[in-house]
Amino acid sequence: MQRSFILTTLFVFFLGLNSFAQDTIPVPKKAWETGGNIGLDFSQLLMFNPPIGGGENKMGIGGLTSLFAKYAKNKTVWTSDGNLHVAVQRIGSKEKPFTKNLDLLRLNTKYGRLLSPKLNASFVGTFESLLLNTYSDLTLSASQTNTLKAKFLSPATLLLAPGFDYKHSDQLSVFLTPAAYKTIIVLDDEIAKLGVHGNPFVSAAEYKNFKHEFGGHLKAMYKNTFVKKLAYAGELNLFYDYLAKNHGVEYIDVVWLNNFGLEIVKGLTLNLIVDARWDRDIASVLSEGTPDGLTEFRKWMITQAFTIKYNYVFK
Known about the structure:
With 315 residues, this protein is mostly beta strands. The chain has a single domain (2-47, 54-314), classed as Outer membrane phospholipase (ompla), Chain C (Beta Barrel). Helix content is 9%, strand content 58%. The protein has helices spanning 2-24, 189-192; strands at 32-45, 58-73, 76-91, 99-116, 119-129, 134-135, 148-150, 156-167, 172-185, 201-203, 206-207, 210-226, 230-241, 253-265, 268-278, 285-286, 295-296, 301-314. It has a 12-stranded antiparallel beta barrel with strand order 1-2-3-4-5-8-9-12-13-14-15-18. Strands 6-7 form a two-stranded antiparallel sheet. It is globular and about 70 Å long.
């Protein structure tokens, strides 16, 4: 029943909010702006009869897809975006399987009503998970020698937060709330038994599929363009759980997203993406060579990628 509740809430929130905005507010086409971008990451190394110590063949393929929708009319402001970043690679001969090295699905929405020229009463929602199954050897399919470590909705994170959004300028906005709800979801029992994704865990026989948190949340967003062709977009998310057993600065969950873009030609950019995270509840390192897979929970988790992106605004 608890699983059904979470899935129903997620479905109603991200799809039902769209219906709410369209059914209760007259929306002329000019009030909407939609668009997106597609990023590609490809690397390849081919060697014939390499000398000893010369290396191995390599092929890497990745992609980043982002879509957004913005609505602004009278006192209503609503923005939503979705991002999917997936990359795989194969090292060695073509008989070797592809392995996964990046997988992130992220959905955001923020609905607000204008209180003053720079202040909105807003509601924010964020959902994160991954798309592909993740096995212990990072290959894309199950075998007799690997085990399933993660998959869609195992884990996933859902955050819902009413609060106030202060827009200092077109470049900087800050959302703040003292009352945000966050849940960590690990629907698959076998994955929940691992105790590495932040769900309540004592042992393989004593665990829960959901962790409910309630606390303060800050979301700061900044974007700007420098010297005409160099752009930056950043997002800092902080969450502090009032219900946690331990408290202190080190128990603040941090998600810091950075995107540096250099325009090559109109619509085409070279992007450096850096994703930095801190969460004491989530294992960031799996130690090798141990039967149980020892974990470390006090590490910054950082992902960096170079992509070439094509940006397009729908009309």
